[in-house]
Amino acid sequence: MLLLVAGAASGELGDLHPTADSLGAMGYLVVVGTLVGFTAYVWLLRNAPISLVSTYAYVNPVIAVALGALLLDEEITAQMLLAGAIILGSVALIVRKSGAALEPGRGLRRRRGVPAEASPSA
Fold first, then answer.
1. Tag placement on the chain: N or C end, fewer CB within 10 Å?
2. Are 52 and 92 in contact (CB under 8 A)?
3. Burial level of 87, CB count in 10 A (0-12/13-18/19+)?
4. Contact, 55 vs 40, CB < 8 A?
């Protein structure tokens, strides 16, 4: 909505030529994309460490590009492949580090009510 207002303020509404297909696609993205994305995000917040939840924002564009290529035959360039590999590699490092921090015996998991120094280590 903000971009629509900014476009109108800068005089770009004359270049806007919406079609039924484009309006339908926008409606689908707003309704379905928001419902699915928000539901997945809330589920992650309840079931995963925050360090892992924060990575969804990096992975979403990679998934969108992959789906565009698979479903709509969109072209994937070498630059896009490199960027996707960097993103996925970075997320893999975060997931690996977060997984190591959650393993028993690393001092981060404790029994309820037992101080960290009294927790048994593996």
1. N
2. no
3. middle
4. no
**Integer Cα distance of 83 and 79 in angstroms:** 6
Q: Tell me the pTM.
A: 0.53
**Exposure letters 50-67 (e unless 16+ CB within 10 A, then b):** eebbebeeeeeebeebee
Query: How many folded domains does the chain comprise?
Result: 1
Q: Which residue range is the domain that position 40 belongs to?
A: 21-103
3-state secondary structure of 48: coil
- Residue 120 within any structural domain of the chain: no
Q: How far apart are CA 86 and CA 77, in angstroms?
A: 14
Report if residue 3 sits inside a domain: no
Distance, CA of 77 to CA of 60 (rounded, Å)? 18
Domain assignment of residue 4, yes or no? no
Is 119 domain-assigned? no
Cα–Cα distance list, 18 to 3, 26, 60, 68 (Å) = 15, 10, 26, 21
